[in-house]
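Morning, I've got a small favour to ask if you have a moment. I'm working through a protein record and want to make sense of it properly. The fold is given in discrete form, as structure tokens running alongside the sequence. Can you walk me through what the tokens say about the fold? Thanks so much in advance, here it is:
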Amino acid sequence: MARDRGQSEEYTRPIRRILVGILVLFLIGLFLLWRIDSPRVERLRANLVDKVVPSFEWALVPVTKVTQMIEGFQSYARIYEQNQELRRELQQMKAWKEAATQLEQENARLLDLNNVRLDARLSYVSGVVLADSGSPFRQSVLLNIGARDGVLDGWAAMDGIGLVGRISGVGSQTSRVILLTDTNSRIPVMIQPSGQRALMVGDNTIFPPIDFIELPDLVRPGDRVVSSGDGGVFPAGLLVGHVAQGSDRRLRVRLAADYERLEFLRVLRSHGTEAVTDPGALVVTNPLPPQPVEPEPEMAEAEE
């Protein structure tokens, strides 16, 4: 048995060497064929590819399937990560919803305890933004609500978060809103918590500057900016934005409204408050007559 195994190894070893040599020569020749820069060799390579590659399509099928499986697995992993992220955000939203519900209930109880009377006239009507002016010299948008909806000039327009502008021009079915960024926009604002009053001036940029601040040293970047209500331009307390410092070291306002996506605007129905020109008008014109005070018995006897 040992002799037969030795004889078989004597026959197979030379054959193995010959096959390895032929394979090495074939690979060297293939390498040289692919490296030779000649038009004839190029045509030969093209013909060789046309003849050999189509017959190996069956061999590419498993590779294609494996590649598709890997891509599908990667896509599934990305979807799983997004699903987990959405679950975390949903949990956070539920927590915020519960906190908002509690605050709303607490606010309702406080309003009820204080007998607060809200102005029913300060309601709103929502409209869709139809078009933008698109002019570098005028910042305005067009709404699909107008005089038929009771819209009046000067009313404030908001995007649900912050102040956007005011109505300037009302038609039967449309109205135009001059944005806070327009150069014709001048609104009085209040900076909280310092309570400083100032004027926000539009300059056709998304960061309007603040002028005429009473005490600039009390204003810090990040302070809240709301409408002051001075001059009757806007109702007081509407959120405008937050203070920011520009590259020119000038105080500006980072607007709370999203000017990149103005799709729906809320127009506040504000009829203003009654102007008091005479301080005496606050006094009741027909007061009740004074009631006589009866003297106490002891004091009456002493007088007798």
